[in-house]
Each structure stands twice: as structure tokens, then as C-alpha cells.
Amino acid sequence: MNKLIKNELTKLIKKKSLYIMLIILIIFMIINNILYSRSYNSKGDKYIEDAEAQYEQLLEYKESLESLEKMSKEEEESYNIIIKQMEKNKYIIDNKQNVDAVGDNRFILRTIFAQYDIFIIIYIIMIAGTIMSEEFNKGTIKLLLIKPYSRTQIFLAKFIACVIVLLCSALIMVLLQVIIGGIILDFSSLTVPIVEYNSTTQDLQFINLFAYIGLDFLARLPIYLILLALSFACSTILMNTATSIVIPILVYLFSGTIEGFLNGINAKWMRFIITLNWNFETYLFGRKPEISAFSLEFSVFICILYFAVIIGAAYYNFKRRDIKNI
Amino acid sequence: MGKLILKCTNLTKKIGKKQVLEDVSLYVHEGDIVGFIGPNGAGKTTTIKLVLGLQKITSGEVIINGYNLKEDFKKAIKNVGAIVESPDLYMYLSGYENLKLIANLYDNVDEKRIEEVVELVGLTNRIKDKVSRYSLGMRQRLGIAQAILHRPNVLILDEPTNGLDPEGIKEMRELLEKLAKEEGMGILISSHNLAELETFCNKACIIQNGKLIEETSLKKLKEETISNYILEVKDTKLLKKMKKYEFDIKNETICSIVLEKEKVPELIKDLVNENVLIYFIKKDARTLEDAFLRKTGGNVIE
User: Fold this and answer.
1) Pairing of strands B254-259, B248-249
2) Each residue of B72-99: pLDDT tens digit?
3) pLDDT tens-digit map of B153-191
4) Minimal Cα–Cα distance from B33 to chain A, Å?
5) How many distinct structural domains can be found in chain A?
6) Has residue A26 got a pLDDT over 90?
7) Residue that finishes a domain, picked among A77, A100, A123
8) Start-to-end C-alpha separation, chain B
9) Partner residues linked to B82 by β-bridges
């Protein structure tokens, strides 16, 4: 099994598309980092002054709330947020670390998937969309099928190879940004922790930047895995490379469209749409979804259900297929 | 005769309602080179695909080295090497990388074995080149290398001489004979080029419209049926009087006749009695192709 996976990865590494994507990504990153360096000036100590000014303002607001005899529920909530915001400002002033900066390497890394994940998506769709169909079309699948491995093993090896590619491409992307951002912007901001307000515990959370990136990746992993599975399944079932690439991209584009309609329609059946459930960023740091029909457990269930159905269909098809004459 | 290593019994394949293959039985022994002959669309490739597990068998069974393909796929296929349709190669990789991929999948193939096989098929100078730069003949050789890399004892080749020049065909023949003789491989070859198969094989199976019409030794196939004889005589007009024979008169002096070997002396005697002056009579050098066309009645796809 390991040998099969290794072979699949060898085949992928030898393909030109990997290097083309890598070059495009690097060029895009360089431009993006230059734009950030030109647009924001994160140097200097001005942020400390800003934090101090904000702290004063909040303090006044806080005192005005305290002077009330009885706070409404909303006022109580904002009172709590004010206290946490003040804590954050105090942290900035005491530690001289700009945790809210937007023009530094850390900011791009913090939002790295929002900024660049289209590259991951396109690349994994390209890989998963061709890994089966290309071998069927060129006839090389026969070479694999007459080796002493079961079809299940071959199927799994190919899928696992795609998942490994996904993980590696995310890792490479982060590394590239660290280096490119480091050269163009700075390395110093990388040690500044991420400060998030947890709305469940109503407390500030301090997280190491790279732990945050890992967490964010995990939260978005269902998006990538579902698209990967879809592309892989199309590739296996339809054996057509072009459709296997186009269909998942359409689904991804559709996910943006449907989200726009969510508040307007809010029909019960809409909660079964995968694209409304696959981004777990909505559940990070104790956040709760705006619409009560969604919950963490429900989203996990929907993601697993879709994944199982898509991969199950592909597996069933692959296992039973007669290799036709070319 | 060596050990029976590939045994297919009553293979039947239906695709939808169409019966593609009916009751095909094939036997390959150690050291055999079996020619699998049939017109286009007869079911040669389908049979091979069933034997290799690439398509599902509707009924019948395939036993390779004592293992049932359906129940014990991995063990059955382990000692099989094959090329189906055309060599399946990754064009964007070099010849060596292609072989390395295959080698990775078996435990018994090391670097030395790869070098050995490359030398055997005569690709040593070009093995580091990308396969996309290979000629068709070189791809065939690489395909053979892929198929024999793991030292199989059953070799199944679908149209292996496609795209080979005469020199290449000769080399391939020598290679296959060597594999059969020295390593005791059983080889099943399908080909449409009958003249070539004739020099390769010691057994032949003829398939038509999904049915096996004959499994026999080549020698027998060539000899058993009636032959064509060519005659040169002084004047062919005289032959018209001989109602007993059906001569095919080509011109004034040349004619031919289809006859069993036993009847040739009688014909000569009759010709002498009729005062026909004979210059020569000779047997038309029949090829496997004639025997084949006679068996199948031409190339008609039903």
C-alpha cells in the first residue's frame, strides 16, 4: 500500500503542472506582499499611541455604564466586550506588540487561506480531477490493475496521495509566505501572538501565530476535502478530465452565490446544502452561527455524509468497472 | 509438455445482452508459445482482459499457477506479465522511471534486475530519455521490459509486434523463444500478423465471433487441410477435357488445383494418360494465413 502511494506521489511530482502552479503562486505572493508594504506602514510606535487613545475612550464609556443603576442585557454584554478590549489595549501598551496590525507579514499569514487558498483549491482539483481519468484515458490504469494489489488498495492509494498533496501544498504555501513576506515585509511580527475574543467563555485568547494557522487550516479542511473528493469522484466515474475539473470549481463558485441568499430565504432544506456547512471558521473561538438551524454537530454530520456518499459512489464504480477497449 | 500454468475454461462474457465471448477455453503450459489468432473484433483482447481480471467474467474460470483469479486475485496475478492493447507507459517519465515505478510494486526487483532487463530488450542507450521521445518500436520493447521485470512465468502479449521493424520482430522472436526455453515461461500472444506468428509459436488458437474454433499445433494446422498445387503444362486447353478435376486455369500454360496430398500421384498418372505434357508440379507454399482464412471463412464480423 505504501509503495502504491509512493508511486502515485512520484508520478505527481514529475508533472509540469506542479511547477507551473508553484511559479504562479510565487509571483502572486510577491506582488501581494509588495502591495501590502506600499499600502500600510506598520513601522514606528504610532500603534501604541492609538492603543492608549482607545483605552482612554473605552475607560470613559465603561465608567458611564457603571454609573447606571441597572444595566440591560445588551449593555451588560457590551460592558464585558469593553473590558476585554481594554485588556487587549493594555497588552499592546505593556508588551509593545501590535496585535491588530494589518500591514505586516503576520497579518498575511493570519489570513493566509482567505488570501491564497484559491491556489490550493485549483491545484487539488487539478490533481484529483486527473489522477484517475488520465490513467483511464491513456490506458495506464491497466498497468496498475494487473499488479498484485486489490482495486480497493489502488483506489485508496490514489485518494491518499491526493490528500497528501493537499497537506503539502498548504504547508508549502505557509512556508513561501513566511519567506517572501519575511524578505519584503518583516520577520519580526511572526512572534506576536494572535489575540481573539472568545464569545462563549467571554475571555481573550492568546495563540501562537502558527498554531492559529494550523487551527484555521483545520477549520477549512472540510472545504478542501469535499472539493477534492468531488473532483476525484468525477474523475473516477466520468473518466473525463475537463468535467472533473469544471464541476468542483462550479460548486465552489456556487457556494458564494448561495450564501448570499441564505438570510433572505432561510428555508429549512437549505441547511442540508454542503457549502453552507463546510467552513468551520464560523465555529472557531466560541463563535455561534447567526442562524440557529446550524450547529457544529450538524455541520460535522453533513460534511461526513456528503464525503461518504461522494467517495462511496466513486469506490463502487471503480471496484466494478470493466476496463473497456481504447 | 511442461506444467499447465494458465488454464481458462469456458470463459463467457456478456456485455448487456450481447454475447461477446462464448465458452472460450485456453491452456498454456510451461515453455509454450501460444498464438491467439482471430480477425478484428473476434474477442482476442476481451479474452485477454478477462484472463487479467480487467473485466468481469460472466461465467467460466481462470486458473493461473493453481490460483483462481476470481478468489485469489493477488496470488494469481503475481506471476503474470502482460501488455494489453499497447504498452501502457507514462509518456512524461523516462524509460527508466517507468520501469522503476513497476519495480517498486514488487519485492523481487532490484536495480540490477532493471539493468538486466533493459539490456535484454536492447534499450540501454536510450533508457534515460523521456518515453515521449521513443519510437513505437522502442515503446514496444519498453513494454516487454515492464512485463518481464518481475520474472513472471506467464507472459501475455497483445499484438506485441505492432510497430516493430523486421529486425525488431526478429529480435522479439529470439527474445520470446529464449524466455520460453530458458526461463520456462508460458507465453500467449495475440496478433493479426499471421506470417509473424507462424515463426513464433508452437500452438495456435483460432477465435472468431467470440467462439474458439480450433486449438491445435501449428504444424498440424498447416498440414491437415487440403493444399493448393501449381502446374505448368504445355497446353492448358487439354485440361478442360478432364472433367474429373476442377482446374483453375490461369493462362495457356499455368493452372492450379486444390487437392489432398494423397491424390497427387493419381493426378499425375491421369495427366500422362491424357497426353498432357507436364513441366512441373509444386505445392503452393501455404502460410498460416491461408489456413486461417480457410478456417474463419474470411474476415467477417457478425
Assistant:
1) antiparallel
2) 888 888 889 998 888 889 999 999 999 9
3) 899 988 887 777 788 788 888 888 888 888 888 898 887
4) 21
5) 2
6) yes
7) A100
8) 36
9) B156
- Cβ-defined contact of A142 to B54 (cutoff 8 Å): yes
Give the B-side interface with A, CB within 8 Å: 15, 45-46, 49, 52-56, 73-75, 77-78, 80, 82, 84-86, 88-93, 97, 101-102, 104-106, 146
Domain assignment present for A234: yes
Are the CB atoms for A11 and A143 separated by under 8 Å?
Answer: no
C-alpha cell, A35: 502591495
List the grid coordinates of B133. Answer: 521521445
Q: Cell 472533473 appears where? A: A244
pLDDT at position B302, please?
Answer: 41
Q: Candidates 3.40.50.620, 3.40.50.300, 3.30.1130.10, 3.40.1280.10; correct CATH number of B4-222? A: 3.40.50.300
Decide: B25 and B11 in contact? Cβ < 8 Å. Answer: yes
Interface ipTM > 0.90: no
Q: In chain B, which residue's Cα lies nearest the Cα of A326?
A: B85
Q: Across residues A268-293, what is the average pLDDT?
A: 79
Q: Are residues A56 and A22 in the same domain?
A: no
Q: Which residue is closest to B78 within chain A, CA to CA? A: A148
Residues A133 and A118 in one domain: yes
Q: Which helix (H) or strand (E) holds A5?
A: helix A2-13
